[in-house]
Each structure stands twice: as C-alpha cells, then as structure tokens.
Amino acid sequence: MAQAHTTQPWYYLPAPTRWPVIGSCALFLMALGTVLWINDAGVGRWVLLAGALVLVYMMFGWFGQVIGESEGGMYSKRVDVSFRWGMSWFIFSEVMFFGAFFGALFYARALSVPWLGELDQRLLWPDFQATWPTAGPGSKEPFSTMGAWGIPALNTALLLSSGVTVTWAHWALKENNRAQLILGLIATVALGATFLGFQAYEYVHAYTDLNLRLSTGIYGSTFFMLTGFHGFHVTLGVIMLTVILFRSIAGHFTPDRHFAFEAVSWYWHFVDVVWLLLFVLVYWL
Amino acid sequence: MSAVADTHAHHDDHGHHPAGILRWIMTTNHKDIGTMYLWFSFAMFMVGGTMALVIRAELFQPGLQIVNPDFFNQMTTLHGLIMVFGAIMPAFVGFANWQIPMMIGAPDMAFPRLNNWSFWLLPPAATLLVVSLFVPGGAAGAGWTLYAPLTVQMGPGMDLTIFAVHLLGMSSILGSINIITTVLNMRAPGMTLMKMPLFCWTWLITAYLLVAVMPVLAGAVTMTLTDRHFGTTFFNAAGGGDPVLYQHIFWFFGHPEVYIIAIPAFGVVSQVIPAFSRKPLFGYSSMVYATASIAILSFIVWAHHMYTVGMPLEAQLYFMYATMLIAIPTGVKVFNWLATMWKGSLTFETPMLFAIGFLFLFTMGGFSGLVLALTAVDVQMHDTYYVVAHFHYVMVAGALFSAFAGVYFWLPKWTGRMYDEKLGKIHFWLSMIFFNLAFFVQHFLGIAGMPRRIPDYSPVFAEFNMISSIGAFGFGLSQLLLVYNVVKTIHGGRKAPARPWDGADTLEWTHLPSPAPYHSFETPPTVR
C-alpha cells in the first residue's frame, strides 16, 4: 500500500487467510503422531515430525504476513492496543498453566505427603518417612536432590542479567540507538542460550549422578515438569528474541512503534519471574 | 444515524474473496465464523444427543439389553465431553462472534485471523474424540471429569481424549483473548462499558474465566498424560502423589466452567426478556456486579464437587458456606429478570417462551444445587441421579434453552427472514414437556439412591427410568423441529424488518438492516 498512512483504516481487517487451517492440520498431525508414538507405533514420530514441520511453516507464513502488514503501516494505534491486550491475556493464561503445576507441588508438600505419614497409612507402609523430598512410600531407589547453590544459582544470575540486557536494548530502541539495541539483544539471546545449556547439563547430571529422574516419585515429577516446562518456555523466548534480533538488524521498529519487541520482552520477564519462583520453591526450600 | 454502512473500499488490499468451501475455511469475517460455530455446535449437539439416547435406551429397562457396560461408560464420557466442549460452549462463542461486534459498533473481532483459528481447532479435536471410539480399548470411559486413577489405566483412546482436550482448550483460550480484546478495545465512541448490552458484559466475564481456567485443565490432563506414559506419579500415592490431587485441579477448572456455560446464557436472556417486556432491563448495574461476583466466587467453591473424597471437616464446611454465597448474586439476577417483566407489555413469541422456560427451570436447577451444596445432604446424594437431574436443569434447561431463545431472537437479523412462529412455539412446548419428563423424575431416582453412570439398576427404579427414557427420546426428536425451522427460514421465510421486536434497542436492531450486511460498522457509529 503506497499511501498506507493516509488511507490507514480505523481498524485493519485482514483478508481471508489460509494460515489458521494449516496450523490446525499441523496440530492435528502432532496430536495424532504423539498418540501413536507413545503407544508404541513407530510411524508416530514421523507423523509428529511432519506436523511440527507444518507448524513451523505456518508460523513463518503467518508471522511473516503480520510483520509485513506492521512494517507496511497498516496498523492503527487501536490495532496496537489490541495486540497489547492480547499479549497480556496470553501471558495470564500461561501464568495459570504454571499455577496448576505449582499447585500440585504445594499440594504434595503440604498435604498429600504428610497424610501418607499418618497413622492410618502405617499398616501399608510402616517404614515411610513423610518428609520432603520424597519419592513416595512405594519407592526403594535412593536419589539426591538438586542443590540450589550450584548451577541453579548461576542460572538465576544469568536470567536476571538477561532481564537487564533486554531492558537496556529497549532503552536504546527508544532513543533510536540501533547499535546498542542489537548488542543488547545479542547479549540477551546469549544469556538465554547459556541458561538452556546449563539446564541441559543439570538434567544430565541429575540422571547420571543423582539418580534423579522424571519417575523419581512426586519429587522427580514436580521437579522435572516444572523446570521442564519452564525450560521449554525459555526456548520459545530465545527463539522469539532471535526473531526480534534479526528484525532489528533488518531495520524494523521505530522509537515509538515497536510492540513486537515489547511483547517479547514481556514474555521474557514472565519467564524470568517463573524462574525465581522455581528457584525458591523447587530448588531452595 | 449515518453510521450504518461505510462503503469505503479500504479492502482494496484484500483482492478477491474465495468462494465455495474455501470461503469458510479461509474466512476472517466474524459473521461467517459465528455461523460456523453455530452449525458445528448443532452438529455436535446431535452427536452428543445420540449418545445420550444410547444411554437412555439402555436404561429404559433394568438389566443389560443393548450395549455392554464398557461401551456404556464410553457413551457417558463422550456425551459429557461433546456436549460441554463441542455443543454448548461453541454455541455461545457463535453468539459472541455474531453479536458482540454488532452490539458494540465494531467492524469485526479484534483478531479476525485468530478468530478463524479458534474455530478451526474444533473439528480436529472432535475428530480425535470420535476416532478414539475405534482404537483398541475404545474411547475413554472414565466419565467426562476424567478422574485418575481410571484415566491412568485406560487404553490409547484416553491419549486421544487428552489431546482433544488440549485442542479444545487452545480454541477456548484464543477465542476468549479475542473476545476480551474486542470488548475492551473495539467499542464505538460513546459506548462506555456500563452502556454495553449485558450480553457483552457476560461474555467479557466468561472470557476472563476461560483464560483463567482452561490452562489449569490443560495442566491436569498433561499430568495424566505423563503419569500414563512417562513415569510421573502426580496421582499415585505410592509415589507420594494423590488421585485426589487430580480432582482438586480438575474442579478448580470445572466449577468456573459451570459458569462459563451459564453466564453467556444469562446474557442472552438479559437481551430477550427486556425486548419482549418492552422495558429496559431492571437493575442493569446490579446485573453487571452480580455476574462479576458469580465469576469471582466460582474460583473458591470447587471442592463442593468432592465432599465424599475424605476432606477435613473444616474444608467441607468452608466449601459449603462459600457455595451457598453464590445463591445471592444469582438471586439478584433472577429477581431482576422478574422485575423487568413486572408491568411490562409482555408478548410471548418463541424467544420469550424459551427465556421464561429458562427462568423457571434454571431457578429449579439452582435450588437443587443449593440442596447439593449442603455437605450432610450431599454425602447421600453424591453420584446419584439427583446430581444428574440438577446439572441437566442447569445445562439443558438453563444454557440450552437460552441458546434456543437466542437463535430465535437473532435469526431475523442473521438471515433477514422470520422463522415460523407456530413451529417455534411447538418446539418450545415439546422441549419443555419432554425435558421435564426426562429429568424431573431423575430427582426421585437420585433421592431413592440410584447411582449414576451405571448401565444396570434395581427393578425398583424401573418406572421412573422408563418415563425418563421416553422423555429423553421425545426431547431429542423435538430438536429436529429446530433444524427444520431454521432451514425453512433461510430458504423462504418471510422478509424480516430491520427491527422485528419492538422492545429490542441494541445497535444491531437500531442501526443495521436485516440481514446485517457482511461488513458492518467499518467506521464506528456514535453512541449517545
């Protein structure tokens, strides 16, 4: 649109699109593939892979189109506000998802494990010590927990620093200092990636040295599900930051119009806060 | 007012619009998407209804006649899942799609492409559920609540169900984010929040509930999945977990879910009753606050579904009192509807009949809910047909009747044609009579001690079960009248005026012709 700004509509209404239905096909294949795979049908992993590839294709296409429209000046102020509401509520839904797992951790530590140590369970499990951490009364395998003050503390420092660097980059963007913007984003991506590297190392350490596994009772379940979903979200965050980095290098965003950047930084701060809770509730206490 | 139609073609960048099936697959238009939601939900209503009739056919007489118990369990499970997630929720999302942009003077939903995706996530999810019937071991048979440890022990059908729930949840979350953003950001100038039609308010609150609790359900079924396949022990006491944990997480979702279904129904009724009473809604602001209170309370009452799992007495008492508090805002709503009708110039077209039917029967369902809220009573009633009767009064005579009211109410606006009033009234009376035949007697069965979700029963329950089954088949068959009436309306009902109901005063009636144009309010109207 040549005179995008003069004919900018009250609200941009997109044309019919093929991306959502492609996304639905992708998710359908992924669901079907996973079900086949975990029920020992070998073809499942290929169906899952196909679905994932279609999903990646959809994301490139859909987000690419949105970026094109945004850079083309199609989005009025009101569209920008919609994106802000949309991202806020999306992050709220993520908070509630983590809430379910934190709730499970709380329930196990405060209620179900102490109940298992009560008198009426003694007949079934006379030797069970109802203390945290535990793999439950049925577990015979010894395991060690992940200490807080080694890698997890380092990871905390890494993520907190990445929160600083992304803000530093944001200040630069608002002052149109592109070099500092790009530098700040590179630092943030690097810190995030290092965090993930440490997390992977920590998992290997848990499995090989500590005998701490996903199947290590309720401790292993909550530990790996919480940190695992967090790590997955960090991975997504790093990918999103990388996209923003490339867009910054390509000259996208202006000092006053850059919601994509802000959305990703909101997401990044959200992941950061979840980590702080994990550090305190899963690793430390 | 001049605000009706902006014919400025700033759609020049859109190129041509695809035709045929591609129009529906690729559409970004809220009216197209609303239509798809409504038809999808009706199709699912028929599928879920057929499953209900399998259940009622088996229960027509004591003994095992038609299906084996395992298949019976699969039917009760799928009936619940399909009716809740496939029929009732999408029906109201369909209303939201059609109505909210027109009611607040917006050109469309805030995220039209996302809107398309919210709908098109539903057919894959429904497919997964239906496919699960044909895998080894059959569909999930643990009841729609999918309680552990049964779900941990089921076959691959359970995995399909888990992923179906994930897709349905995603659809709901994306759709809700869209609705919240639309209501908060897309209102025409002058349309303040407290001037919005109540239907928009109820959907704003419902969407908030959905964004808050659907992820929790996703968490619950994810734990089920990892317990099944990856060795976690969230719901296994031997590993330090607890099957009751599942129930807590599920009902933290499940109780707000009840209001997710009921609150949009309140919204529809709050549009219909004033229109046919020719009076504005009595106590508008108290309606808004009551709805919000119900939503907030819904988060802190979940364990009243679990009185018999062995909670501490203090917890039971707390959940009992908290639950009974909900009667207060609900009472506010019921009395406001009655006060709206008080001294109104009432007429009783089909939408009004269904709205009044809703008012009677939903209130009864609310009262039986109060009975069940009493811990001491619920210990007797838990998992009996009394519970089944209670929630069918709320879900069917509440939510479904209000959806019927909404369909008849807005059909002239959507299609530009009037439905057949006589057929509509017959549909109402048949539904009303057969519904009560099917479900009223279930109260007696429950009090007498007949457990739910069991394919066989003692011969002492035979008469009431027979009556209930006759009512269920009558109710199911009566719904064919609705399809017939809708199809007949689309193909040759008489032309509807822009405002066929005298008392209807929201923007879609006052500012738009019937049928509403494909794009309405591309530039916003000004609201006084």
Reconstruct the topology from this structure.
The complex is a heterodimer of chains A (285) and B (528).
Chain A: H1 19-38, H2 43-71, H3 77-116, H4 151-174, H5 178-210, H6 217-249, H7 259-284
Chain B: H1 21-26, H2 30-58, H3 69-104, H4 112-120, H5 122-131, H6 150-153, H7 156-185, H8 198-229, H9 243-277, H10 284-297, H11 313-325, H12 327-341, H13 350-373, H14 375-381, H15 385-415, H16 421-448, H17 462-490, H18 507-510
CATH architecture heading of the largest domain in chain A: Up-down Bundle
Q: State the helicity of chain B in percent bands.
A: 55-70%
Number of helices of chain B: 18
Helix content of chain A: over 70%
Give the integer mean of the pLDDT values of chain A.
Answer: 94
Strand-and-helix sequence of chain B, N→C? Answer: HHHHHHHHHHHHHHHHHH
- Average pLDDT confidence of chain B is 94
What is the gyration radius of chain A calculated from CA atoms? 23 Å
Number of domains of chain A: 2
Counted up, domains of chain B total 1
Can you name the CATH architecture of chain B?
Up-down Bundle
How would you sum up the major sheet of chain A?
Answer: none
Report the principal-axis shape of chain A: globular
